[in-house]
């Protein structure tokens, strides 16, 4: 029956010719301008922002800042004001009296300098002291331990 006939060969496909395929005219590039040209390159937007910053080489604006963590400085005149005679001075007590602050959540090392005068006898623990501050503390009747 005619409606049951089947072909013995499949349909031939159209012959392909290398003439640019389906993209004609502007070839999917839109029209005109820099983006339509061959070899187009547009600077990224962020590049212009970066180029406006000053050139900071090496360690940048902090180039003169030392890598070593410096101790917190406390002067003798502050100890005179905030501490009573016979009290002990430690980094923890200095922190409690708000003479020093934590650095990244850690109590810093403390160095006592000799600016000012000291009349009270204080006992100092776990703090560095300059030589002149040490003599002033000992002259006032105090001690410097470590």
Keyword list:
3-stranded parallel sheet, single chain, Ribosomal Protein L15, Chain: K, domain 2, rod-shaped, 4 helices, alpha/beta, 146 residues
Tell me the radius of gyration: 40 Å
Report the sheet with the most strands, covering strand number, pairing sense and barrel closure.
3 strands, parallel
CATH class label of the domain at 72-145: Alpha Beta
Largest sheet, spatial ordering of strands: 1-3-5
CATH architecture descriptor of the domain at 72-145: Ribosomal Protein L15, Chain: K, domain 2
Task: Tell me about this structure.
By secondary structure, this protein is an alpha/beta fold. The protein has a domain at 72-145: Ribosomal Protein L15, Chain: K, domain 2, CATH 3.100.10.10. 21% of the residues lie in helices and 12% in strands. The protein has four helices and six strands. It has helices at 45-52, 76-82, 91-96, 131-139; strands at 72-75, 88-89, 110-113, 123-125, 128-129, 143-145. It has a three-stranded parallel beta sheet. Strands 2-4-6 form a three-stranded parallel beta sheet.
Kindly summarize this structure in a few lines.
By secondary structure, this protein is an alpha/beta fold. 21% of the residues lie in helices and 12% in strands.
């Amino acid at each position: 029956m005619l409606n049951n006939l089947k072909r013995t060969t499949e349909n031939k496909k159209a012959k392909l010719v290398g003439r640019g395929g389906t993209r004609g005219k502007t070839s999917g590039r839109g029209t005109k301008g820099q983006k339509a040209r061959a070899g187009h390159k547009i600077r990224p937007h962020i590049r212009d922002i970066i180029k406006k910053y000053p050139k900071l080489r090496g360690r940048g604006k902090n180039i003169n800042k030392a890598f070593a963590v410096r101790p917190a400085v406390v002067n003798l005149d502050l100890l005179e004001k905030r501490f009573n005679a016979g009290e002990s001075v430690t980094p923890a007590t200095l922190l409690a009296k708000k003479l020093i602050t934590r650095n990244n959540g850690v109590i810093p090392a403390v160095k006592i300098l000799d600016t000012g005068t000291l009349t009270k006898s204080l006992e100092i623990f776990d703090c560095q002291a300059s030589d002149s501050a040490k003599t002033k503390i000992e002259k006032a009747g105090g001690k410097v331990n470590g």
